[in-house]
Amino acid sequence: MASKEPTDPRALLRGGLPDCYLTPEDLVVMFKLPSVETVYQWRRKRIGPPGFRVGRYIRFNPAAVQAWEAERTALDDAA
Fold first, then answer.
1. Which end of the chain is more exposed for a tag (fewer CB within 10 A), N or C?
2. Who's near 56: CB < 8 A, 6+ residues apart?
3. In this predicted model, which residue has the larger pLDDT, 17 or 40?
4. Is the pLDDT score of 3 beyond 60?
5. How far is Cα 49 from Cα 61, in angstroms, rounded to an integer?
6. 3-state class of 16 per DSSP?
7. Quick one: which of 28, 19, 77 has its CA closest to 49?
8. pLDDT score, position 56
9. How far is 60 from 21, CA to CA, in rounded Å?
10. With 60 as the cut, is the pLDDT of residue 6 above it?
C-alpha cells in the first residue's frame, strides 16, 4: 500500500503552521478599522490580537486572530 506521508520536506517543516500570516493592513481590512495606527495602538496597550515580530515587521497568526475575535464577541454577548 502507498503511504499518505507528504513527500515534500517543506510540508514536514511547516507542521501546523498557516500558509500565510496576517499583516496589520490585513486586520484593518478585516475589522474595517480607521487606520493601521489603531492596530499599533492595540499592540502598545496589549488589547488587540497577539502578534509577533519578524525583523521589523509585525505578523499575526490567523488562528490567534480568530480566537481573539471569538473571545471579544463572547465578552460582548455576555454584557
1. N
2. none
3. 40
4. no
5. 9
6. coil
7. 28
8. 96
9. 6
10. no
Whole-angstrom CA distances from 60 to 22, 38, 76, 79 are 5, 15, 23, 27
Q: Where do the H-state alpha helices sit in the chain?
A: 9-14, 24-31, 36-45, 62-78
CA–CA separation, 79 and 76 (whole Å): 5
Amino acid at 51: G
> CB of 50 within 8 A of CB of 64?
yes
Q: Which three cell numbers stand for residue 18?
A: 498557516
Q: Is 27:65 a contact under the CB 8 Å cutoff? A: yes
Decide: helix, strand or coil at residue 76: helix
Residue pair 49/7 in contact (Cβ under 8 Å)? The answer is: no
For the record, the C-alpha cell of 61 comes out as 497568526
